[in-house]
Fold this sequence. Notes:
The protein contains 2 helices and no strands. By secondary structure, it is mainly α. The protein is elongated, with a radius of gyration of 12 Å. 2% of the residues are buried. Helix 1 (4-23) runs antiparallel to helix 2. The protein has a domain at 24-50. The longest helix is centred in the last third of the chain and has 23 residues, at 27-49.
Amino acid sequence: MVSESDFLLFLRELDRLIIELNNCSDTQVSYSIYQDIQLLRDALVLTATE
Length: 50
């Protein structure tokens, strides 16, 4: 299980990445940001189920 402070850090980073994705005009960079978002999402799901 992840600590509350780590969970909040993940959420803050996820929020930052979503904002970057929305402001990005480069397709390759957008895809890279999208992949990072998926990795963070997966990490949150895995830690929430442990």
